[in-house]
């Protein structure tokens, strides 16, 4: 093992010693049989396995629930080497299914069907030639609304067989979004405090505009363009007042070292960046004032060519190097 680990520093081999004549590898447990002088295999599940599946009471298509049981049955048929291990695994599948409120008859039906298919596949040799299906397959997604979905599927299939018999439509059902999607778990972030944004700044006194992007908080980038630091103070105070009104927030405990720590900022670099900004230069040359509140898409740079933009290419623009037609983009002036 030490010799193998010397081949490359990024490759490390490990080993595991069998315990009670058993050795696990991935989802397979290899058992040393002392009676038959051979190895047996069965399913292995980690101690952290919880046994949770798609609940029988969940609002999803029946195919999803069937697939949960079918996958476990197929794995048992492929891995278990003896009928005794296969029986034990089927009992474990029944236990897991009942834990998730699956009917026992539903589980036994799937086990019986898959077991029959496995036996026919193993003991029956088919010599008939395979006939290829010349039908063109297309896949159609249908929203899942229980019986209504089944009715719509049957009607579409009936019309297809009459109008396009050479077409084979495969339907798959999409369950609706969970109720969690309709509840907001986190507090909304104020627009100027968001990061990884595309921002659009328009002059209030002329038609000049500027579009850019930043990975940092938008307020930091706008301050570098020359936005007054008090421009968003009112919004920050409003959010702070709401927090103080709605909850009793206690001040965080901090050590004296953190409380007495001073923050050093390089104001010279900030001043240089502000002076070089094309927006600042525009304000100085014309005496105009910018509107610091609007955000738009970066593809607008290609379509509208703002006068204050010195660069026209950025990472998002590489996806559409030629831009998009104006008809597909919102007008930033509206």
TrEMBL record:
It comes from the Eukaryota. It comes from Rotaria sordida. Coiled coil: none annotated. Residues 53-111 form the Helix-turn-helix domain. Pfam families: HTH_animal. This is Helix-turn-helix domain-containing protein. InterPro entries: HTH_animal (IPR058912). Signal peptide: none annotated.
């Amino acid at each position: 093992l030490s010799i193998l680990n010397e081949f490359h520093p990024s490759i490390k081999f490990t080993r595991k010693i069998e315990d009670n004549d058993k050795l696990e590898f991935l989802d397979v447990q290899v058992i040393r049989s002392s009676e038959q002088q051979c190895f047996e295999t069965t399913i292995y599940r980690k101690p952290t396995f919880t046994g949770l599946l798609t609940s029988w009471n969940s609002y999803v298509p029946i195919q999803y629930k069937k697939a949960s049981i079918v996958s476990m049955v197929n794995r048992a048929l492929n891995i278990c080497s003896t009928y005794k291990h296969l029986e034990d695994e089927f009992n474990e599948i029944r236990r897991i299914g009942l834990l998730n409120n699956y009917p026992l008859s539903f589980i036994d039906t799937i086990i019986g069907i898959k077991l029959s298919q496995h036996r026919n596949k193993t003991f029956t040799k088919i010599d008939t030639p395979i006939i290829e299906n010349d039908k063109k397959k297309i896949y159609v997604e249908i929203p899942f609304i229980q019986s209504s979905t089944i009715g719509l599927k049957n009607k579409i299939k009936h019309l297809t067989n009459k109008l396009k018999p050479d077409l084979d439509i495969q339907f798959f059902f999409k369950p609706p979004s969970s109720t969690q999607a309709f509840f907001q778990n986190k507090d909304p972030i104020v627009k100027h405090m968001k990061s990884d944004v595309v921002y659009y700044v328009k002059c209030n006194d002329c038609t000049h505009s500027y579009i850019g992007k930043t990975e940092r908080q938008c307020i930091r980038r706008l301050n570098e363009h020359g936005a007054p630091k008090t421009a968003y103070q009112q919004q920050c105070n409003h959010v702070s007042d709401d927090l103080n009104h709605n909850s009793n927030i206690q001040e965080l405990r901090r050590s004296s070292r953190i409380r007495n720590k001073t923050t050093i900022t390089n104001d010279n670099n900030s001043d240089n960046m502000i002076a070089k900004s094309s927006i600042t230069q525009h304000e100085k040359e014309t005496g105009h004032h910018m509107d610091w509140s609007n955000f738009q898409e970066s593809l607008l740079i290609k379509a509208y060519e703002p006068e204050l933009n010195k660069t026209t290419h950025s990472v998002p623009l590489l996806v559409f190097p030629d831009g998009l037609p104006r008809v597909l983009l919102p007008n930033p002036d509206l």
